[in-house]
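Late entry, written up from scratch paper. The run itself happened at the end of the previous shift, but nothing got recorded in the book at the time, so transcribing now.
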Amino acid sequence: MKKLSMLFALALAGLLQLSAQGYQVGDKATDFRLRNVDGNYVSLSDYSDAKGFVVVFTCNHCPYAVAYEDRLIEIDKKYRPQGFPVIAINPNDPAAEPRDSYERMQERAREKGFTFPYLLDDGQKVYPVYGATRTPHIFLLNREGNDLVVSYIGAIDDNYRDPSAVEERFLANAINALLEGRKPDPDFTRAIGCTIKTSD
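Output as recorded:
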């Protein structure tokens, strides 16, 4: 009986761990409604003409996130007109990292001239659903019928330090593949960045 209980406990732990991993490539993504730095609330359903979305979990203070800000602006400017807008979400708890407060987000968005929404994951309810673990962490969604399907997860490119030294533009290549009717290859890379900050 004790052995059976142990096996059940291990199986349950495995299921919980699996569910905690969030989305995998091929999963259908659900919508969210989060507050933007302009005070308005944003949902994916607001973009009825979008072919998909570049959902990026990012923040103010992480040096990796900061290093990619200009590249995200470039990606949004290039691919938003083609149907793939960038939606940035700050997943960090401001109580754990005050530099990622809503007010600081507003300041940062103004300073950098963000061309995309910058949303606060208030209560940290969205990032665990996606399975984001880093800032930045990319989830590329593709519209298939009425569904938004996760088509690429991971890093923006292979060199956060120096944009001029990038050899593999993972995100841009994945978006281009979808625009051409192909599946991204690779469809998964390891996200490089800071861990998401919680108060737990």
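The two ends are 35 Å apart (CA to CA).
(Scratch paper discarded after transcription.)
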